[in-house]
Structures are given as structure tokens and as C-alpha cells.
Amino acid sequence: MTRDEDVLRQVLEAEAAKVEVRPDALAAIRARTARRWRWLPFGAIAFTAATATAATLVVVALAARPAPDHTAPDPGAVTAPATTPTPAPTPPATSAPPAAPPASRSSTSSGTASASLAVYYVGEDRGEPRLYREFHRLPAGSSPAEKARAAVTEMLAQESADDPDYTSAWPSGTRVLDVSVEGAGATVLLSAAPPDDLAGQQLAWTVAAALGGDPEVRVVVGGREVAKLRKAAALDTLGALWLIEPQHGTTVARTFEVHAAGTVFEATARLTVRKGRTVVTEKTVTLSAGPPARGEARITLTLAPGTYVLELYAFSAADGSVQHLDDHTVTVR
């Protein structure tokens, strides 16, 4: 109980105790009250008025104060803002339009998906056989094993290289029966074993290009493992210079890019463009890395429509002769 409430209670009890209940009580009370107010000193009157006013304010305040909220807080609730706005009405749900079908990969007439796959062939570099690479678009599934089988099948096919300077180290009639992938390795079932190390490297590099990295390639013939292959060092296996793009026999726009790669002395090669016997242009090519690393370079050419021969080569440090020549014939439209 507050101090104001206690004072009010005492005043009311004191006044009630003086009341005499008798027939003329009301008149007596009125007369007594009049005499009391007349003879009370000014300070008492002021105190009584103030007390009554305070009591009234206390009653009004108690009546106006809201009842305490005894609801327990939600332990999982996040502190909400003081004013929570009324959410806007949600528009009625509508059916989403059907999703467009995903773009399909290019495919052959039989419906089998196709992919651009690297195939390794054999060419000559200063009279020695080396590996060169072409990209062929071939029917293949989506799995690495299916891609490897498609690339090996193309590698074994006679005269499948676009560049007439390239060939295969495998004998005619050799077939791939199956390719499976287990972890970081692959098993290739063939109708015949590799005839020599170069043929084995041609297979190992072709399978690795389809799978990625440097997988171990098990060669199985007639149910028996005949070889375990890995890629040999590029410096000892690949042609010293490659014309990667444009590939032999392709048609290009008047302005196109030549992509070269290789390992040559001081990372310096030469690009000559011929039309018939006429040299149209010559450029020095600086590869991105020197021996023993394999560097790359890109050169932009603009040529008039016609057929051209692109020659990539290096000069011998000993006698200045042309070596490591790789050439492609292209048509500019």
C-alpha cells in the first residue's frame, strides 16, 4: 500500500468513527461538518484538501494502470520491433510457366551425343617419330569411359587424321572392345597388344586426354593384362612445335587467331604464311616458356579470302636450318 493510500484510509476511518447513528443523524452531521470547517485552521484545511486530491489521483491512477502481463516470453523468438507493420495482402498464387528444356548437346543422326575429343597421332620431327594432337568431334556418351573409348576408336582407325602428315603407330584392324575407369586408372580391352613403345604412348596420351591427369592405363588382350602404361615425358614424346589452331583443313574468318605451342631454344619460333609459292607474311613467335617447359603463343592474322599454308618452325642454333616444322592448310572465307 502506498503512502497516499494509507493517509486516505486513516482520514476515512477517523471521520467514520465520529458518526452517530440516530434519527436526526443526517442533520447533526451536516451541522457538525459546517462548524468543523469554520473553526479549522487554514493549514488543516489545506492539508485535508490536498489529501483528498491525492487520494483521488491515486484511485484514478490505479484504475488507469494496465494489468501486468504475466505471459512468458517465447524462448525462440527474435526481438521484434516496437511496431509491427501490417503485412501487405499476398496476391493469389499463379501457375509458373513451364521451364524451357535445357539446351541439348550436338548429336549425331542416331541421337548419340557428340564431343570434341583430343586424339594423338604420329608425325615426324627431324626424322624421328613424335606425337601430335588433333581435336575430333565424335559420337560419345557423357562418362569419361565412353569418351575415352570414342577417342581410342578414332585413334585406331586408319587415315583418320585430318593432317595427311600424321598417321597411327597401330596396325590396321586393331579394335577397342571396351574401356572402364576405376579411380585414377583405366582398363582398355583391345583386340591386339601395342606393337611398340610409340604405339603405347599414343594410347596413353589419348586416354589421358579424355580422363584428365596422368592415369595408369592397363591394356588387356584376350583376358590377359599385356601392358601398364603412363605418359612419358613430353620433351621426349611430343613434337617440338604444334600448330593447335586453326587445325588442318578448316575454314576461318578473315581475321583469326593462330594458337601455337612447343618447346624450342630460347622459346622463339617463326610463323610463315604462304599462298601458293608466295610468302604473304612472316612473324616471330615468342612462346610463354622455354625448355624444358612447354610454352604457348597466340597470334592474330588478317588475310584476304583464299587458301593458305601456315608454317610453324624454328631455326637450328647450329646451322640456321629449318626444324620442327608443323604446317596446316586453311581456307579464309
UniProtKB/TrEMBL annotation:
GerMN domain mapped to chain residues: 148-230
Pfam families: Germane, Gmad2
Bias (Pro residues): 84-101
Transmembrane residue ranges: 39-64
Stretch list, region Disordered: 68-111
Keywords recorded for this protein, A-Z: Membrane, Transmembrane, Transmembrane helix
InterPro entries: GerMN, Gmad2_Ig-like_dom
Superkingdom as given in the UniProt entry: Bacteria
Biased segments, Low complexity type: 73-83, 102-111
Protein name: GerMN domain-containing protein
Lineage: Bacteria, Bacillati, Actinomycetota, Actinomycetes, Micromonosporales
